[in-house]
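Q: what sequence does this backbone want?
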């Protein structure tokens, strides 16, 4: 009974949070853990790779959010984990790219392992206005001074993060923070450079937790999880419940505090390759202006552990 009380208490504490989005939004957060928590690296004890494409608010028109992610992580001698993540995020005229390397040390704790991880990498941001012109009543020129003048304004900055990720056979719990330096991109807002626009990578905080609950039927498992993120001003909570059959097929529903409902379905195609799909729709005024959000994942995990080769002995009788 204690395990149910523990998980329920996390849900109750998290419900006080509302919503936020400066970071990329995902529905299938189980496959994007490495983006937000470097302590996750190597936690499965395997070599894992996941590619995910999210097309948000389809039918909304040009400028709708679109993000592509590729994550690879591996366990090294059961004590360390390494990971690399690439993220390409496009929203309107903004083009953002992040490349991060994660390393985690895994320490035995209770029935599981605690991953203590750090990540560092490069964040690139650019603005591509094309032939667009912005007109405001307060500005005589045909450009808003708050918007960069051209797409040549792009910058590369160092980026750092830290995280803890605890995992047992049935439970996982993570806490992490990204953009620790809160670095700023500075764009020229007019041709002579006398006016600039600054955009900061705000520090974000994350909490994630999940549990595997077995049914009476050993082929069925219920997998609830939560995902919380905050930038200190605004926060967002996602609660997901999945039912998995024979570790081959899974499906369920996720609810987010930004008034979104998500349906998720996935399967294992063959021994180690997985694919999954999710569809989001918003339950707000925005519903009438888009055709929903599609998210597709494909990935695999390889167990590279080798069984110990039996030692052979020769009898001295045959020497």
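A:
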């Amino acid at each position: 009974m204690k395990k149910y009380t523990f998980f329920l208490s996390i849900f109750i504490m998290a419900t006080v949070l509302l919503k936020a989005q400066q970071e990329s939004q995902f529905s299938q957060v189980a496959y994007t853990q490495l983006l937000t928590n470097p302590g996750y690296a190597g936690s499965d004890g395997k070599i894992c790779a996941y590619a995910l494409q999210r097309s948000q608010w389809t039918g909304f028109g040009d400028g709708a959010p679109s993000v592509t992610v590729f994550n690879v992580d591996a366990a090294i001698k059961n004590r360390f984990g390494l990971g690399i993540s690439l993220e390409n995020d496009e929203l309107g005229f903004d083009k953002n790219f992040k490349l991060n390397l994660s390393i985690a040390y895994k320490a035995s704790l209770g029935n599981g392992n605690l991953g203590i991880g750090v990540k560092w990498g490069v964040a690139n941001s650019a603005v591509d206005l094309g032939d667009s012109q912005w007109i405001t009543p307060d500005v005589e020129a045909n450009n808003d001074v708050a918007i960069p003048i051209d797409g040549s304004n792009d910058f590369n900055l160092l980026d750092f993060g830290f995280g803890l990720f605890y995992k047992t056979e049935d439970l996982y719990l993570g806490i992490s923070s990204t953009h620790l330096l809160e670095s700023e991109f500075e764009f020229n807002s007019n041709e002579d450079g006398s006016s600039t626009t600054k955009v900061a990578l705000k520090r974000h905080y994350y909490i994630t937790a999940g549990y595997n609950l077995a049914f009476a039927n050993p082929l069925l498992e219920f997998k609830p999880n939560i995902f919380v993120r905050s930038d200190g001003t605004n926060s967002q909570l996602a609660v997901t419940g999945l039912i998995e059959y024979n570790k081959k097929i899974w499906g369920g529903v996720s609810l987010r505090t930004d008034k979104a409902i998500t349906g998720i379905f996935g399967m294992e195609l063959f021994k180690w390759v997985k694919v999954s799909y999710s569809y989001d729709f918003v339950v707000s005024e925005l519903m009438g202006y888009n055709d929903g959000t599609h998210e597709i994942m494909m990935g695999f995990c390889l167990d590279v552990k080798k069984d110990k080769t039996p030692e052979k002995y020769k009898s001295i009788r045959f020497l």
